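Today's session is about reading a structure prediction critically. Students often jump straight to the picture, but the first step is always the sequence itself: look for stretches that repeat, for charged clusters, for runs of hydrophobic residues. Only then move on to the predicted structure, which in these notes is written as discrete structure tokens rather than atom positions. Here is the chain we will use throughout the hour.
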Amino acid sequence: MIYDVIIAGGGIVGLATAYQLQQKKPDLNILLLEKENDVAQHQTGNNSGVIHSGLYYKPGSLKATNCLRGYQMLLEFCDAHSVQYDLCGKLVVATHPSEVERLKNLHERGIANGLSKIKKLSGAEIREYEPHAKGLAALHVPYTGIIDFREVSYKLKELIIQQGGNCQFNQGVTNIQPDQNGSVAIVKTTKEVYKTRLFINTCGLLSDRVANLAGKQYKNVRIIPFRGEYVTLKPEKEYLVKNLIYPVPDPRFPFLGVHFTRMIRGGIEAGPNAVWAFKREGYKKNSFSFKDFTDALRWPGFHKVMRDYWQMGLGEYYRSYNKKALNRALQKLVPELSVHDLQPGGAGVRAQACDKKGGLIDDFLFAEESWAIHVLNAPSPAATSSLSIGAHVAHKALSKL
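Below is the predicted structure for this chain, in token form.
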């Protein structure tokens, strides 16, 4: 049997791609392969569950266009299929004079991205939205929401199977090669051998390795894993945060800084620290993979990242192991918070693509050949953008089929 499309990777981007292909061409024979025993086991199932508005992203970039379009598509999907979400809004708070100008630039970027309802707040006005937060100025972003992206993923899986798609689990891809004519790809997994007219790689933390299995070496990109570690507020202190409170991001770094998030299933999450993970799928401080560790250390671009960001990196590690240091960072936003109000939370690992020159790739990144499409960089806001990314990849796929 020859499949029309095989998609490797059962995160929300792979699921959304399969779903969008079925929507556009229902008669396609699609197989989705996942190495775990269910969907959404890594980045999708271990993020903070925020529906991003598109505030941060450079107008016209793939992140901006897909986030803005994906936001609407996600809400329409959830409404159609009874998936719970809450557009609770968030504050982006400037706590230092140097951040006020950056906040102004962020407001201008949001307006350029069509977010006409964002509102500038004075320091005094912050408490109207978050009574226990403090800052010099803030932006109120009413578009931002909260959701469980695992629930979205389970619904996508259900619809894909209902519409005739095939999902196979516990099957990691071990090799991909075109046949002699180049018209069919042979995909080997830990259990089976499949044939397909088109292979799509949405493997997230392993996307670069899967791309290299395809025979064409993508030598300019390497995935560097960063673990985001969270704490939660003790139940009796959850009143300190109503919804979402974020700092003004540092434009030199691709992470948003420690923040507070009300979760759709209840509770308040705080963090994350962003530390280099010594294992691509390592969610604990002691998680270690010799292969993953040495892969990063051998990458010339990562050497430059370490040189450029060593001070920031040391600060992240310090907060990882010192709860008082983390609390001091959080107190910039909510001064009443005490170290005794924090308890251990979860962790996620972000797949961050890094080029050979040390650039942490800021935008979504795709690579193509005649019989394959690779999604090589899809960090946040990929979950919010997933249905739009799926439509984007589906359009590329149909042009090849």
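Discussion point for the tutorial: Residues 90-142 form one domain.
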